[in-house]
Amino acid sequence: MFIDSHTHIQISQFDPDRDAVLKRALEAGVSTILVIGFDLETSLGAVELAEKHENLFATVGMHPHDAKDLTPDVLKTFRELLNHPKVIALGEIGLDYYRNLSPHAVQKDAFEKQLDLAEEMGMPIIVHNRDAYMDILPILEARRGQIQGVLHCFTGDVELMHRSIEIGFHIGIGGIVTYPNAKDVQAVAREVPLERLLIETDCPWLAPQSWRGKRNEPAYVRAVAEKIAELRETSVGTIGEITTKNFNSLFKTH
Ligand code: NI
What we know:
The structure is a single chain. By secondary structure, the chain is of the alpha/beta class. The protein contains 9 helices and 8 strands. An 8-stranded parallel β-sheet has the order 1-2-3-4-5-6-7-8. α4 links the parallel β4 and β5. The longest helix has 18 residues. The protein starts with a strand and ends with a helix. The structure holds nickel (II) ion.
């Protein structure tokens, strides 16, 4: 059994065949799927979808790309949604210095406000980071012991992985680990303490090597688990079992 800890199956790319996608996931042994919001609309969409399916859970949050849209009203809506029984984390939130769609100061402000909210509500967080470890890690280090979560789609090196582990975070590994030239991610997948590992697809983006360039979907999280099992010289069943246990203890789904 596997859990896909990061998906965006609420978005329109899945409108034509969402039920078939969910069926293929179950057939591939993907028992639980976390649907991640990245702005107000997709957060509401994630909650709505999770209400319809027992094995789906949702998160709400404002992505750094749209940091400027985090108005007091939106923050209030997120606070209300965090009380919903199917909403198990705040995210994805963070910093993105690669695409720079919002100024850094605006991104940091939105990140801090949502970290305050997560702390207040006692919720774990889903962190998006692109080329911003130098700012994200100190921000999280300042809240060490007060906040937990996952650095999703981790692409840093082994040293950054160890710093993230030290401040209590989990490491989310996705389809990039299956790309032949992804040496850093493969080294991290080999060395991350097993009790801090989560697997994800980040679908519809970042499909594993066999489907690279095509639409990604939760069923393919199995390919991520298979690659990690190969790198660690263990069984895919072990990776599935441990990452499921990690997910359930971090997000308290039951
Ligand atoms: Ni994402």
